[in-house]
Amino acid sequence: IFKQDNAAVHNARLTKDFFQENNVTLLGHPACSPDLNPIENFWGWMAREVYKNGR
Prior knowledge:
The protein has helices at about 15-20, 40-50; strands at about 1-5, 25. The N and C termini lie far apart (about 45 Å). A two-stranded parallel sheet has the order 1-2. By secondary structure, the chain is mainly alpha-helical. The chain is about 40% helix and about 5% strand. The protein is elongated, with a radius of gyration of 17 Å. The longest helix has 13 residues, at about 40-50. It has one domain (about 1-50).
């Protein structure tokens, strides 16, 4: 099972045809879902903590 977002390059006909021809199962993904990658949220929090005093 392959997971991807709905970026324009992922929705291109060529990409869709490739997955279909190679019997790749795609996991559905909502068009405007929030970023659920926890490490990105963690690094954002860390950066705010480190620089919160303007240093």
